[in-house]
Design brief:
Helix 2 crosses helix 4 and helix 8 crosses helix 9. The chain folds into 2 domains: about 90 residues, RNA polymerase sigma factor, region 2, helix turn helix motif (Rna Polymerase Sigma Factor, Chain: A), CATH 1.10.1740.10; about 70 residues, Orthogonal Bundle (Arc Repressor Mutant, subunit A), CATH 1.10.10.10. The chain has about 180 residues and is mainly alpha-helical. It starts with a helix and ends with a helix. About 75% of the residues lie in helices and about 0% in strands.
């Protein structure tokens, strides 16, 4: 995805006061980060907002980045925490989605409709997973991260990641059966 040495060097420059180093990091990581957040939230606008907020937090916390640490792990940890906070807020402040209330007026072929329906069912089933299972599943399946990388971001063991993925897949099979 990105060169860890370049990311660490950019973070060191950012911590030393070179604010333009943030642009480098954003160029390399904005799209992968927004993709992860979209897969977690299922909402494109929300994913863009949370990705921007993640970079705001990176800037605000630039002095706390530990030299030698993997930037992507730190970045995704910040994003995961923001996603968790957003999910908590949304559960306390439910609202109807506008897209769900307005049906599409253009007719679609049957196959496309079936595919879209399946995708919606899968996204909803993923959204219903407990936070720890959902994060592990999205990082593994959609972001192609290793068990070790996920464990570092979630501050757990590799075995815990394996267990979370197994449980997530079991729950998804049951929900989609």
């Amino acid at each position: 995805m990105s060169d860890p040495a370049l990311d660490s060097a950019a973070m060191e420059r950012l911590a030393a006061g070179d604010d333009l180093a943030l642009n480098e990091l954003m160029t390399r990581w904005q799209q992968p980060l927004a993709n992860f957040i979209f897969r977690y939230t299922g909402n494109e606008a929300e994913s863009i907002d949370l990705a921007q907020e993640t970079f705001v937090r990176v800037y605000e916390s630039r002095g706390r980045f530990k030299s030698g640490s993997k930037f992507s792990t730190w970045l995704f940890t910040i994003a995961i925490n923001l996603c968790r906070n957003q999910a908590r807020w949304k559960s306390r402040h439910p609202q109807a989605e506008l897209d769900d209330a307005i049906p599409d007026s253009a007719p679609t072929p049957h196959d496309q409709a079936v595919r879209e329906e399946t995708a919606v069912r899968v996204r909803r089933a993923i959204a219903e997973l407990p936070h720890d299972l959902r994060v592990a599943l999205v990082l593994y399946e959609y972001e192609d991260q290793s068990y070790a990388e996920i464990a570092a971001q979630l501050d757990c063991t590799v075995k815990a990641v394996e267990t979370r993925l197994y449980r997530a897949k079991q729950l998804l099979r049951a929900a989609l059966a």
